[in-house]
Structures are given as structure tokens and as C-alpha cells.
User: What shape does this take?
Amino acid sequence: MKSIFLLPEDSLKFVYNTSSIQQIKEMTDNDGNLHTRESILSNPSAYQDVDIVFSSWGCPLFDEELLNALPSLKALFYAAGSTRGFITDSFWERDILLTSAYQMNAIPVAEFTEATITLSLKRFWHYMTALQKGEDGDSHQTIQGMYHGSRVGIISLGAIGQLVCQKLKHLDLDVVAYDPFATNDLFYACGAEKSETLEAIFETCDVVSLHTPWLPSTEGMITGDHLRSMSHGTTFINTSRGMVVDEPAMIEVLRERPDITAILDVIQDEANRHSSPLRDLPNAILTPHIAGSKGRECFRMGAEVVKECERFLAGKEPITPVTKEKMALIA
Assistant: This one.
């Protein structure tokens, strides 16, 4: 089968390493070159027999015009997370397999979250900030520590939330999760106590970690009242999306409550992170959206779509197929 790489040059070198590219060239008829929406539309006759597209961040819009120029397309392997930005209704009208490496992207987010939870239960951020100001911070008796009785709350049991729970299983912690769409069996498999309400997560947990995708229904889901209800010395972590949190309300609460800490890998306006009022709050720790795949971690996603292609060529079921219904839930 004939395949092409359809993505920007930066994405290719960051996501597909030499090994993955070589495997793709051995499995399929692939020229190893980069192709673009413009190159396809300017010479559609050269792409009539393309069966497979490999892509990643920067994937072009798969609208009717592009699809008509790729009439033989049977599979699109996407080496990244959400596909909402480039898949149209026209795509779903055709019998094309779509897969995503979002589960591979979940791994570094879960690792980042586990490390952050560990440091938060030691109140690392509070004492680090205090020492930088020449102070000692609160009494060490306010440290929750890593032992039974310390509660970690996980909001949403998607791919990342589930993986975080699995990573916390080996620690002496009480893990509680909130997800109104998850089954009891999933809570059990994650080793997490089920919280019936979102409010209870914030009221009873020492650390709360948010993993809810940004959807119209989840925008502003985390309110100021939720954060205000947290106990003394607790921590809120957001590696999801900034729009899931009522940010102005969060800023207000952080100003009122210097004892609680917010670890924010994402905020609403990431292009203007340096001018955000959050930057001036000592109890708001900002990182520049680094929890997801970065550096060599990105190669994991390229390797995953190679596996997907191998299965496709062998007539096997895909590992992570994306349907129209499922696409709306992938962050």
C-alpha cells in the first residue's frame, strides 16, 4: 500500500524518529518526503493511489476538497492526541480508519501528575516559595505526607485519569475519583473510591488533580466555590485545559487563601502567560504546558502509529480507533 507523511517538518522530526520512519518505509510504499495540503491540491493526480496517511500536530483539515484529492484513502494514523481540529463531517461519511496516539500522550501527563502529587503532599511549593522570600513557611505539622489518610482526588477517569490512579496504587494513599459517566467497575479497576459529587472531592482531599477534557459542557466546571471549600494547605493541579476552570474566580480565591496552592500547567490564555495575574501570586505555580509529550517522549507516539499500521496491514483490530462519538471526549 502507498503511504505519505502529511504534517509540518517540525512535527515529523519531533514525533517520528529514524526507526519509525524506516519501519514505515519497509511496511508501505513511502517516499520518505513531506507532503502538504497545498502539494496535494495542486497536483491531485499524483495522490490518487494513496492508501495511508501518517500525521501528527499540524495535520491539515480533512474536508471534502482534500478527501476528493485522496480517493483511495483507507487509514489516517495520527501520532498525537485530539483529532477534533481537523476532522470534518465529510471524513465520517467515508469508510476511513482513524486512530490516535492519545493514550501514549497520556503517559507523560500521568508521570508529571504523580510527581506533582508527591511534592504537593510534602507542601514542597509552599516551603520553596517561603524560603525564596527569606521565610520558613507554615509549621511542618501542616504537611499531609504520603501515608494512609492522605487523600488524593482525581477528576475524570479518561485515559489520563485512569493512568494516574494506576500509578498511585503502589503508594500508601487514599485515592478518590469523580466521574459521573464512569462505571463502578472502572472505579474498582482504578483502585479509586467513588465520589458521588464534585464538591466532596474538593472538601475532603489534600490534593485535587483535574483531567477533564475541554468541552462546551465542561467549560467553567471548576468554580471558585469548589476551590474555596478546600482545607488548609491543600493543592489543586490542572494539567487538563484552562477553560475547564473559572479562572477569574480561581484568582480571587488564591488571593483570599494564601495557604492553598494551584499548580497550573494550563491556563485560559497561554499565549499571554507572562501577563496573567496568576504570575504574580506566590501560591500559583505556572508551567508552560509541559505535562504532555515533550522531547524524546514524542517518539512514543510515532512508534504507536507504526504498531497501528502493522495491525491494519495484517487485518487486525486497531489499538485506539477514533469514532465520531469518541472524538468529542478526547482532550
In short: The radius of gyration is 22 Å. Residues 2-100+295-327 form a domain with the Rossmann fold fold (CATH 3.40.50.720).
